[in-house]
Amino acid sequence: MPKLLLSVVFAGQVFLSALAPPALAESFSLYLTRHAEKQSNSADPLLTNCGQQRAMLLADTLSNVEIHAVYSTSYQRTLATAQPTATAKQLSVIQYAPNGLEQLARVLKQKKLNALVVGHSNTIPMLLSLLTGKAFDKIPEDNFRHLYQVVITTDQNNEITDMVVTDLTQSLRCR
Question: Mapping DSSP to helix (H, G, I), strand (E, B) and coil, where does residue 115 land?
Fold first, then answer.
């Protein structure tokens, strides 16, 4: 019997419930998001006030989710987006190279742990594609609201039996 996964976003909180899990199946969730609003188009900008609020909202949104790892590129804007969640979960941020997405996708699938990955408007869709085998459009430069949940279910042979992608759009809108 396939696993039914319900995901609901309400007031910035993610509530997940699983019904009728298959025997010997294992599932985990990956949360992928673009960094929050940045100050400028310089090479390595900081977050704006709104971006800092969004980073805190991300941590709050994932507060009821058991996150075991937080990944970010080495840029200030991605690290500042990831850090509130890492701090809340008492984790260190694991840095990855934006040009090493194939390796990151393999690691995420092999570890089978709930994880947050913070990236960029071009790398998050590429990572989603590598994880799922489906094409995803680049995130528009002025859009910082997407939080993708990828639920991966594997069988007793570690084969992926199901994969569901949900866009948990964040409610914060900055002016």
Answer: strand
Assess contact for 14 and 53: CB atoms under 8 A.
no
Measure the CA–CA gap between 84 and 40, rounded to whole angstroms.
21
Is the distance from CB of 163 to CB of 150 less than 8 angstroms? yes
How is residue 174 written in tokens?
């900055």
Q: Which residues contact 5 (CB under 8 A, 6 or more apart)?
A: 16, 17, 18, 27, 151, 164
The whole-angstrom separation of Cα 62 and Cα 66 is: 8
Q: What is the DSSP string of 149-170?
A: EEEEEE-TTS-EEEEEEEE---
pLDDT at 13: 46
CA 79 to CA 27: how far, in whole Å?
Answer: 27
Question: What does the block give as tokens for 45?
Answer: 């900008």
At 22-48, the pLDDT tens digits run 455 689 999 999 999 999 878 899 999
CB 28 within 8 A of CB 165: no
Q: Which of 156, 72, 76 is nearest to 115 (CA)?
A: 72
pTM reported for the whole predicted model: 0.84
